Amino acid sequence: MEELEDAAKAPPLPDAFLRFLEANGLDPSIYTAIDSTPRYIRLKPGFEACLEGIEAEVNCKLEKLEWLSGFYSLPPHIQIARSRAYREGKIYGIDAASGAAVMALDISPGDHVLDLCAAPGAKLCMMLDLLGDSGSVTGVDVARHRLAACRTMLQKYMLGDRCRLFVADGTAFSVVPSRFCSDRESCESGLEERGDLFKEWTSRRPWKERKRANKSGTVLVSRFQPPELIYYGQYSGVVGITKGELYKTLSDSEIANHGYDKVLVDAECTHDGSVKHIQKFEHWGWRTLQHRVLDAERTDDLHTLQLNLLSNGFRLLKVGGSLIYSTCSLTVAQNEDVVEQFLKENRTAELTEIDAARNWPCKGGRMPKTWRFDPSTSQTSGLFIAKFTKLGI
Ligand SMILES: C[S@@+](CC[C@H](N)C(=O)[O-])C[C@H]1O[C@@H](n2cnc3c(N)ncnc32)[C@H](O)[C@@H]1O
Q1: For residue 342, is it within any domain?
Q2: Which residues form the active site (predicted)?
C-alpha cells in the first residue's frame, strides 16, 4: 500500500483500517499524535491537599487543566495504575474529553441523572462526585461483566450511596427516578413495616447474582429481558420502596414531570476516535479490529442502535431537562447523521448550545452546536458531543 510506504508519516495501522478512515474522511495522522498526547487524571474532590504527595509517587509534575476543573495532565508514558493514589481511590484515570462530556450536562445539586451506557463507569463516578450529597445517578449497561466492574469502581471510590445499577438494554429501559425516597429522612422511616420493601444493599447479593448469571450463561441481555438491579445505594431511592414501585412504568405525559433531569447517552460505537483503544489492537491482533470496528461500522445495526439509545434516553427525560449524546467515534455517520435523524423524528428535541465549550480546546462539528475533540486539536482522545433540551409539547 502506498500509504504505508512513508513510515515516518504513516501510523502502523492495517490497510483495512486506513481504508475505513479514508471512506469516512478521517485523517490517519491523528493516530501518530498518540506519542505526544498527554494522559489525564481527575483528582477525587477532597484530596486536593494530597497533590504534592501524588506527584512524588508518580514521579512527575501534574499540570492543572485550566479549562476543566479537577483534571490534570501527565506525560503520556506515565503509568498510574500501580500508584498508591490510584489504588487508594484518590485519582481516576479519565480522558479530559470524557470529563468535558460530563461537564456539558451542567449537573446541579439534587439532579436525578440517567447514564444509559454506563460501564465501565468513569463518567458515572464523575457525575456522583459532582452531585455530592444530593440527587441520584442511575447507571444502565447491557453488558453484565462491564457493569459489575462499574460496581467495583463505586465501591473503591466510596460513591455508591446515591447510585443504582441496572443490567438492561438501554433501548428499552423504562425505570424512572425514585424521587420520593432519595432523602435520608424518608428512607429511614417505616422500613420495618412491610416485608416486600427493598432493604439496605448487602454484599451477599453479588455472589447470588454471579451464580444466576453463570447459570444463564448470558453476557449481554436482550431488549425483552426485564432490567436486573445489580446494585443500589442507601440513598439511591430504592431502599424503602417495593418492586412494584421501582418498576412502575409511567406514560409519556407523566415522564414529562417525573423523568430524569439529565441523561447521558455515551453510545456504543466503533471507538475509532479513542486512539489509545485502537493502539491496543496491535497487541490484541488486527483481525479483532476488523471484527469489532470495521465490520461493525459497515452494518446499519450500529447506527440504528445509536439512534434507539438516543431516542429512549430522550423519552426518559423530563421537560426542561438536558441530554448529552456522545461517542468516541469520529465518523459523521455515528454522530451528526444520528443527530440529524433524531431531530427529524423528535419534534420536542432542541439541539442546544454548550456554553462551556467556548473555552474548551475542541472544534465545531459539521452541525452547529456540536463539538469534536481529537488528539491534534485538543490533545485528548477523540470524542463527539451534542446537547439536547426537551421542550414542552
Ligand atoms: C462507550 S462505552 C461507555 C463508556 C462509559 N460511559 C464510561 O464512561 O465508562 C459504551 C457502552 O455501551 C454499552 N452498550 C452497548 N449496547 C447497549 C445497549 N443496547 N444498552 C445499554 N448499553 C449498551 C456497552 O456495553 C458499553 O459498555
Answers
A1: yes
A2: 328
